[in-house]
């Protein structure tokens, strides 16, 4: 009898989970959502099984990454399957051509997720960006009794802020969820204000290069600044570029910008118009090994995030955690979930968004004060290891899958 009970409890404690997302790595070398990929690999060995359900990209079929099966559903001819990945759907759907893909994307996704849940005997669906992907969880929940965990990152709330239809839809999808999680205290507060739902803050860690971080500055004679991330409007690179001439008036400096996105060409042109060709390098996507080298060489990491035209901003800023883990002083905007990562004057320096003068002053302060830079780097690494440790984040996620310790979802008054 005890063996039967133990076996039953084991199945409950190690459920079959499917991570549902619009974006996931397309190959072993792809750099899409590295934090989600890392979380999947960290939680997989604690579960009976874990799969990823995601849309295709240019005809991409089901494949494996890190020994995890990534199921891909088709929703358009291969040449048109570009609604997700790279710049991301929120940016792309501003174009009419991409808007026409939304309906087939949602319909085919709903059918695929339900069919896969039946085939895989899935017990938990972890839905990232519940608007619109909460739609895909309805049939599995209603007909199969699948447990639904909704994960809000902030982009869906930016849409809900500007549209009553989106806000109503998001509220409904969340009402059908068994657990609601968010990536930062900022996202939690926005979710409560807009939709009236309490949530659990479950941050992501960072994919840190395999290196021994050091508080030492680069051995280069010329100090260097680093930015990593998608080159989209809310990253605010134009603010940094416009602040750079004032920095250069005080001291020599270099800037390295990694990543790709729909604003890259515009910002390259801005850099040239400001006469920064010899100072700024746009290097595109880089490998973990190359990124580790860039961290070792940089004097400070700069993240000048802003609210974009739709009100979206950084839900957490996972790359900031990575910079802290590499013992680098961080200068960032005081927006969104960044304040969970950067404690002003303790783990980095925060400045108002779009404030070029404040950004210039913060950069010069760090570059001219070795003791400050070293202290920020050391305290930042300690903060990252305590709060954003991957094992801690993975354990929290598994507990939510198991339905242990976080109670029922509660409602609070929301805006109309």
Task: Characterise the protein shown here.
- There is one protein chain.
- The protein has two domains: 2-205 and 390-402, 3-Layer(aba) Sandwich (Rossmann fold), CATH 3.40.50.2000; 224-387, Glycogen Phosphorylase B (Rossmann fold, 3-Layer(aba) Sandwich), CATH 3.40.50.2000.
- It has 18 helices and 14 strands.
- With 416 residues, it is α/β, with parallel strands linked by helices.
- The strands form two sheets. Strands 3-4-2-1-5-6-7-8 form an eight-stranded mixed beta sheet.
- α8 packs across α9, α11 packs across α16 (356-368) and α14 packs across α17.
- β12, α14 (318-325) and β13 (330-333) form a beta-alpha-beta unit.
- It is globular and about 65 Å long.
- It holds the Pfam family Glycos_transf_1.
- Keywords: Glycosyltransferase, Membrane, Transferase, Transmembrane, Transmembrane helix.
- InterPro entries: Glyco_trans_1, Glyco_trans_4-like_N.
- Residues 103-203 form the Glycosyltransferase subfamily 4-like N-terminal domain.
- Residues 225-381 form the Glycosyl transferase family domain.
Descriptive key words:
416 residues; alpha/beta; Rossmann fold; 2 domains; eight-stranded mixed sheet; six-stranded parallel sheet; disordered N terminus
Report the total helices: 18
Write down how many β-strands occur, each being a DSSP E stretch of 2 or more residues: 14
Which class of the largest domain in CATH terms?
Answer: Alpha Beta
The spatial strand order of the largest sheet comes to: 3-4-2-1-5-6-7-8
Mean pLDDT: 89
């Amino acid at each position: 009898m005890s063996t039967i009970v133990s076996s039953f409890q084991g199945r409950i404690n190690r459920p079959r989970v499917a991570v549902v997302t619009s974006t996931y790595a397309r190959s072993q070398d792809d750099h899409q959502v590295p934090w989600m990929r890392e979380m999947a690999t960290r939680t997989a060995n604690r579960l009976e099984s874990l799969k990823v359900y995601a849309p295709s990209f240019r005809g991409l079929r089901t494949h494996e990454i890190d020994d995890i099966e990534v199921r891909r559903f088709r929703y358009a001819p291969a040449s048109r399957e570009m609604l997700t990945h790279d710049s991301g759907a929120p940016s792309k759907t501003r174009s009419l051509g991409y808007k026409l893909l939304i309906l087939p994307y949602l319909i085919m996704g709903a059918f695929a997720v339900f069919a896969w849940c039946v085939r895989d005997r899935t017990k938990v669906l972890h839905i990232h960006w519940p608007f619109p992907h909460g739609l895909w969880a309805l049939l599995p929940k209603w007909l199969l009794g699948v447990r639904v965990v909704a994960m809000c990152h902030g982009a869906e709330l930016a849409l809900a802020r500007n549209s009553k239809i989106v806000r109503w839809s998001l509220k409904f999808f969340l009402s059908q969820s068994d657990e609601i999680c968010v990536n930062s205290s900022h996202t939690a507060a926005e979710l409560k204000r807009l939709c009236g739902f309490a949530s659990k803050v479950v941050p992501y860690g960072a994919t840190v290069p395999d290196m021994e971080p050091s508080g030492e500055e680069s051995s280069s004679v010329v100090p260097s600044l680093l930015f990593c991330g998608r080159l989209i409007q809310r990253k605010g690179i134009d603010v940094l570029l416009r602040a750079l001439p004032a920095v250069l008036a005080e001291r020599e400096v270099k800037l390295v910008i990694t990543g790709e996105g729909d604003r890259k060409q515009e910002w390259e042109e801005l850099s040239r118009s400001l006469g920064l060709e010899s100072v700024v390098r746009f290097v595109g996507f880089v490998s973990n090994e190359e990124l580790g080298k860039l961290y070792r060489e940089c004097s400070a990491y700069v993240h000048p995030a802003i609210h974009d035209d739709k009100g979206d901003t950084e839900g957490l800023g996972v790359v900031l955690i990575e910079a802290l883990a590499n013992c680098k002083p961080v200068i960032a905007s005081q927006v969104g979930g960044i304040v969970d990562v950067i404690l002003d004057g303790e783990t980095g320096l925060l400045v108002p968004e779009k404030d070029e003068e404040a950004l210039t002053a913060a950069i010069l302060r760090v570059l001219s004060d070795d003791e400050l830079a070293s202290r920020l780097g050391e305290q930042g690494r300690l903060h990252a290891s305590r709060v954003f440790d991957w094992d801690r984040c993975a354990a929290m996620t598994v507990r939510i899958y198991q339905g242990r310790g976080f109670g029922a979802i509660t409602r609070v008054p929301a805006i109309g």
